[in-house]
Fold this sequence. Notes:
Blueprint: H1 2-45, E1 47-52, E2 55-60, H2 64-84, H3 90-101, H4 106-117, H5 120-126, E3 130-141, E4 147-158, E5 162-176, E6 187-196, E7 199-204
Antiparallel strand pairs: 1-2, 3-4, 4-5, 5-6, 5-7
Amino acid sequence: xxxxxxNIDTAFRAMRGFMLIVxxxxxxxxxxxxxxxxxxxxxxxxxxxxxxxxKAAELLAGTRKENIGVEARDHVxxxxxxxxxxxxxxxxxxxxxxRALYMADGSAKKQYDDLQETGYIAGIISGNVSQQVLIDSVxxxxxxxxxxxxxxxxxxxxxxxSIVTRxxxxxxxxxxxxxxxxxPHGFLIERWEILDNKDLKIETR
Length: 205
């Protein structure tokens, strides 16, 4: 009489143990799947796709701290490129310098105003002179903000009769600001000054 009952009780316990194993297994698989899905989503968010010349390029995104040196050097290089690369066209000069001035404070505007007052800009336009800048190197101290930088470059002043090569050394500090379309790196150049700008050689054309 008690044997069937014992068999039912044993079968019930076995079934309960089996169901418990199935539930625990299902929970483990679910947790593993959720974890893998979260990790995959995080990895996908680190990938940025940029459309350039009709082609999609995949880039890896990083934190501001990881890229601060690279971004700071590129900010300084781009500022000097826009500020010093000039062609004999008033509108082209105004547009180029305007882009540069978004990346710096009043110290850069003062330098530009000085160039205008001395007739340097007018001389480029009237003399059909082109000025090109080649960035040799940019050093940035990223230990503490504001970040001190120094830029080493070469200027080429191309006239109809000659090419003048000049050295260019500038320095200033970088302060972090909000990123924008005009200032994608999120830095502002302050206390910018020209330390050296002398002739290296003059070539006759």
